[in-house]
Amino acid sequence: MSTHAIEKTLILAAPPAEVWAHLTDPDKLAVWFHRPESSLATPGPFSMAGSDGAPLVWGEVRHAEAPNRLSMSFTARPMGGLMTEVTWTLTAVEAGTRLHLRHDGIPDGAEAFGLLTAFDAGWDDHLVRMRKAVADE
Asked: Per residue of the chain (137 residues), what is the pLDDT tens digit?
């Protein structure tokens, strides 16, 4: 089965350590994404509840190298158990951070195209909120 990948890049006016906190700290994640039950700064399973309190997003942090790289398996309730991969790469730039997101493993084909476009639009929305959350600190 072939798959799609979504890639996004942001330039944020904050050092990598601060951006890392927005990717791993439950209180900061709750502002721009969903609140996990525990920090994502160490390998292990994670879960994030939806507004109804039931798990909405879950997976396993596989690699956490602060403040440079975070990778995890990733699924969400509407995905019917399909597990994908999300990798965040943080690179220090003058006065800030280049943040790169790669979301791999989204199935190709006409039946899954709605899933691809939903993830693409969803990441756009979440990353706009992340940019605002980082700027507000």
From this structure: 689 999 999 999 999 999 999 999 999 999 999 999 999 999 999 999 988 989 999 999 999 999 999 999 999 988 888 899 999 999 999 999 999 999 999 988 877 888 899 999 999 999 999 999 999 98
* Among 48, 43, 9, CA closest to 127: 9
The half-sphere exposure of 54 on its side-chain side, counting CA atoms within 13 A, is: 4
Q: Are 131 and 10 in contact (CB under 8 A)?
A: yes
Taking the C-alpha atoms of residue 131 and residue 129, their distance in angstroms, rounded to an integer, is 5
Structure tokens at 33: 């994404």
- d(CA 53, CA 94) in angstroms, rounded, equals 41
Helical (H) or strand (E) element with 87: strand 84-93
Question: What's the order of all strands across the beta sheet hosting 44-49?
Answer: 3-12, 96-107, 84-93, 69-76, 55-65, 44-49
What backbone torsions phi and psi does residue 110 show, to the nearest 5 degrees? -60, -35
Rounded Cα distance, 3 and 1, in Å: 7
